[in-house]
Amino acid sequence: MDKSPDAFRTISEVAEDLDLPQHVLRFWETRFNQIKPMKRGGGRRYYRPQDVELIKGIRHMLYDQGYTIKGVQKLLRENGNHFLVAIGNGDMAAVEAIAQRRQADQVPLTPAAQPRGADDEMLVGQPKVKPSRRFFGIGKSDDEGPVQPGSSKLSRDNRALLQEALFDLLECKRLLDQVR
């Protein structure tokens, strides 16, 4: 017997409908505050129809469009849930309308007026800081690498580069695992 379109769904039903493992849905709940299934006694999750639609949009952006989790979080922050729901449903007219409304509402900020940290969610592969020649040891001896002798700390820029490289590698691993 089929459920009504307005009925709540269990995690196993949502996982089966969207071809996702249940643990991925639980993980996404930790990364996307917008996914809030109702929890009953014993921690059993029940997803509302709007939760399922949002998850469908998130899945599309991550798996089909190749966005990172940070990229999808940024899309949600900038455009709202309706944007991803429309994308998940393939409603390109609604996507275009939301994008146009956002552009009309947006006032361009001068670089000095932009909030600090606005650059935090850049696409994978575009470094936020330029690598210093010292980090890669170009033209230096082995003891003159990214960490100076007697010091146990990397510079802030080099730490950022390493963190970004780690994030890129983890994202590559996720994409490779998805293909296998």
TrEMBL record:
InterPro entries: DNA-bd_dom_put_sf (IPR009061), MerR-type_HTH_dom (IPR000551), MerR_fam (IPR047057). Residues 10-78 form the HTH merR-type domain. GO terms for molecular function: DNA binding; DNA-binding transcription factor activity. SUPFAM superfamilies: Putative DNA-binding domain. Pfam families: MerR_1. Residues 134-155 are annotated as: Disordered. The keyword Cell wall biogenesis/degradation does not apply. Gene3D superfamilies: 1.10.1660.10. Keywords: DNA-binding. This is HTH merR-type domain-containing protein. It comes from Mesorhizobium amorphae CCNWGS0123.
